[in-house]
Fold this sequence. Notes:
- By secondary structure, the chain is α+β, with helices and mostly antiparallel strands.
- 28% of the residues lie in helices and 28% in strands.
- It is built from 8 helices and 16 strands.
- The chain has helices at residues 32-36, 54-67, 76-90, 132-137, 165-176, 220-231, 276-289, 295-300, and strands at 12-15, 18-21, 39-41, 44-47, 50-51, 95-103, 117-124, 139-148, 181-186, 191-194, 198-202, 208-211, 236-239, 251-256, 260-267, 270-271.
Amino acid sequence: MAGQPYDQREGVIWYNGDLVPWSDAKLHVLSHALHYASSVFEGERAYGGEIFKLREHTERLFHSASRMDMEIPYTVDEIDDACRAALTAQGYQDAYVRPVAWRGSEMMGVSAQTTKINVAIAVWEWPSYFDPEERLKGIKLDVSEWRRPDPQTIPCDAKAAGLYMICTLSKHAAERKGYADALMYDYRGLIAEATGANVFFIDNVGTLHTPTPDCFLDGITRRTVIGLARKRQLKVVERAIMPEEMEGFEQCFIVGTAAEVTPVSEIGPYRFAPGEITKLLADDYMAEVQPAKTPEAAVAV
């Protein structure tokens, strides 16, 4: 499947209430979403046939749609069921799940109140977001020239397609220089996030530091990792972090549904060594996402 165009894959996609052949899940070139970025989406992972924190992802999809003045024509329960149905139909145990909602082609122009809100859910296999060998020793990040905008200029708490434009530009620029990804500062010059993941730093006494998500998405994986760290009695501090503070941190990692927990060895001029706490939280996260075994299944194993 590696390198295969996404419109030429096998299987089915849940599209406006029906499972349709993968190649038939199309939209018109004059769809409002294509011209004005009126689209919201989620990124979810299935492990062992179950989608991790599905309800939280679906609720965030509806929140994002509301922030974009879009009303999804299904209930949260119906979208949950549709995600499971798409996963089952594809026959994967471990997979990536992508629900997306967008404005259709009924109106063309900035104003689009009467456009139909379409919803689709695609499922595919996506083992690792970064190169596995590079990931083990820590990925390298560039520092982006683009910054996360002031929250008064964007719906920063929405997972909306248009907000990723500068993320694509940042990642392209980083990859051209040989980096795996880029760290983005915010409009104030504070550390914000990577292009598709939140960031954590660890100091010399084992305290975790992560930027306050006041102008970028507070990731579901981010919240999960904070919970896992506190279970381990690790101190977690959410605060404003200046770029020069990276000089004093010993470890760094990024987190996200696609990235999971990925160690970082370099951000621009700053160096980090993937250590025990990073490894511990990565292992804890992988244990957390695995479906709970029933007593019968545990005995069988």
